[in-house]
Amino acid sequence: MINEKMKKLGVSRSTIRELFEYGKKLKAERGENYVFDYSLGNPSVAPPDAVNLGIASLLENVRDVELHGYTSAEGDINTRRAIAKYISEAFSAPASYEYVYMTAGAAGALVSVLGALTNENETVIALAPYFPEYKVFVERNGARLKPVMCKANDFTPDVDALDAAIDESVAAVIVNSPNNPTGAVYSEDDIKNLASLLERKSKQYGKPIYIIADEPYRELVYDGKEVPFIPNYYNNTVVCYSYSKSLSIPGERIGYAFVSPRADDAKTVMRAICGAGRALGYVCAPSLLQKLVPSCIGKTSDIKLYEENRRMLYEALTSYGFDLVYPSGAFYLFLKSPTGDAKEFSETAKKYGLLLVPSDDFGCEGYVRIAYCQSPDMILRSLPYFEKLVGEYKKESKNN
Amino acid sequence: MINEKMKKLGVSRSTIRELFEYGKKLKAERGENYVFDYSLGNPSVAPPDAVNLGIASLLENVRDVELHGYTSAEGDINTRRAIAKYISEAFSAPASYEYVYMTAGAAGALVSVLGALTNENETVIALAPYFPEYKVFVERNGARLKPVMCKANDFTPDVDALDAAIDESVAAVIVNSPNNPTGAVYSEDDIKNLASLLERKSKQYGKPIYIIADEPYRELVYDGKEVPFIPNYYNNTVVCYSYSKSLSIPGERIGYAFVSPRADDAKTVMRAICGAGRALGYVCAPSLLQKLVPSCIGKTSDIKLYEENRRMLYEALTSYGFDLVYPSGAFYLFLKSPTGDAKEFSETAKKYGLLLVPSDDFGCEGYVRIAYCQSPDMILRSLPYFEKLVGEYKKESKNN
């Protein structure tokens, strides 16, 4: 019998994907130049040369049956070693290949890690606003997602709210900094406060509460900000990383889960992640991409372009009178709806060809997300339409 | 809290993977030339030139942000169209891109389709012996796997046994022909008999019982045998296909699920598959590989090499006195344990460096699986060790 839950997930789709598909249709109707698709975090900045050069070199130099063959379920040993070496050098953190599990992107890492660390009826806390698929991934395993709102002024963690929200049922807290959708980057103090709260709560309930650090935007930070490496502050941490954004290869599905060797039962956690990946049908992460990683590690696309997009949009939108928080990382702006109604605002924006994701699915009302990983040209052309959009609300408030 | 079920799955590993890892260690100890790893279905025959040429051409001709970017969750539209066209031409079956969902290999297809078509406490029948991961994939969703043994003489479906086994709880039957692990290829009559049984049972219980046709070995058939395309015989069929074996690219994780447009509620089934894939964290199948498919469709590795391996092994093993069924497809031989104990036989074989997978995990006792997708050179060198192995049992039976 058709599974009703899966049917619903397939029919409803994610709001982001829905808007993305709508955008494709709208472009066919109105023409490419009259649709400004800010829906999807699909990088527009070219991958670094190392990506295509690396693939070409693998095609040239590695025997093809080996290159395209199965790797171990955990991943290619050389790739895992290269990642462990990078982690220990870049973050001065203990690491070894035994704690690196290659995955099909951060999503593959998250579902495997959630599968490993949660049980039916346990709770996973997400700092809201949060990436909507967290809910889908958490509920798949029979656990519950509990959103805890960040501070409204800068969208950093509200430790008091967390303190009040964590009960015995909490298995893990998902931390996503640089944040999607707000662009907030949590400071070292934020992480220290969070760590000390979770240590206290773990002690109180006599079990580890894990941090699942979802870090696909780790390298996308501006204004010289630093992203603290959470395993250096909290032992029971599993990092979910993806090369999707740093290398502009989101479609290729390559990332990893890294269990801090300092975690309680780190090896058992690692084995449970492997088991969860197995049950999910993840035989191994794509082999060509796995083998590409060592030559691309630490490299990124030209992030300056995102920084420039951010400046251009932030300055224009604030000058038009929009209310938005200054983002320090990722490639998202979180824009307040003039009426406080996110869906209405997103619908009105569509009239101007502006595709902005309403915040409701992010576990937060009254905002839209703008993914500014688009071409500067598109952003520039979209500005007059943003101005018209805000004008509509100014008119309204005058008329009222 | 660490999920015990996932921990167990991760610690126990699949028997096949376990043996593969053991083989890697043994090679390091004894030397490459003294270990004959027949464990894993990892093709040894080079991919057709079209694979590496196709990748090189994509790198050359497609804008890199597009090439490596997200596709729709269902997959790249051109790829889905090319697959639908191929299905309708090669099998004279109705097909359209709307019923093709690109996946990370057949495993990704199977978990998504099982997620879509099964519910807690429902039953999925596997024709035994069956690929062991079916059990993991089925149980993940809270359903039960019920093995129904094939006929012992040729490992084709036993329709009477199926008739007796199917009750109201059965949601689907997994059909895997050419078969892993037996190499059996089901005839048109086998499929017709199965279809008519399932039509009768569906009517009786007032709900569709689906066939999930797991077909990664579709092209690997010998002696001019034909593999019937099941959607032409049974409407409620979903095909799970992978390019892993046909193109010798198992590590790359590329395949698809195809819902027969003639299935009841075909569109809803398709949406439920998308929903299940979403919950499993399958954002999209690897984009470079998706885009490679149209230029490789219908091409295969040089299958003659497998056919030659099969002949060489089959002739040698039967001449030594082993008991085995003549296989018509895939790249597996299913060898009877001389004592009827599969595990003991597999352990004894290890002494001779022969890695043979015991059949117990395939839902069938007393056999080992030999994956002959290895180099002809390795197979040739292994033959004296098979002879010594059988000698050990002859000695024993003399002594007894």
Q: How many strand units of chain A?
A: 12
User: Shape of chain A, please?
Assistant: globular
Give Rg of chain A in angstroms.
21 Å
The share of residues in extended strands of chain A comes to 5-15%
Question: Strand count, sense and closure of the main sheet of chain A?
Answer: 7 strands, mixed
Q: Largest interface, by Cβ-Cβ below 8 angstroms: which chains and how many residues each?
A: A-B, 86 and 86 residues
Low-confidence stretches of chain A: none
The average pLDDT of chain A is 94
Structural class of chain A: alpha/beta
CATH architecture of the largest domain in chain A: 3-Layer(aba) Sandwich
Helix content of chain A: 40-55%
| Strand/helix succession of chain A | HHEHHHEHEHEHEHEEEHHHEHEEEH
Strand sequence of the main sheet of chain A, in spatial order? Answer: 2-8-7-6-5-3-4
CATH topology of the largest domain in chain A: Aspartate Aminotransferase, domain 2
Number of helices of chain A: 14
What this model shows, in words?
Helix content of chain A is 44%, strand content 14%. Chain A has 400 residues and is of the alpha/beta class. Chain A folds into two domains: 4-48 and 301-399, Alpha-Beta Complex (Aspartate Aminotransferase, domain 1), CATH 3.90.1150; 68-296, Type I PLP-dependent aspartate aminotransferase-like (Major domain) (Aspartate Aminotransferase, domain 2), CATH 3.40.640.10. The first copy, chain A, starts with a helix and ends with a helix. Chain A has a seven-stranded mixed β-sheet with strand order 2-8-7-6-5-3-4, sandwiched between helices. The interface between A and B is large, with 86 and 86 residues.
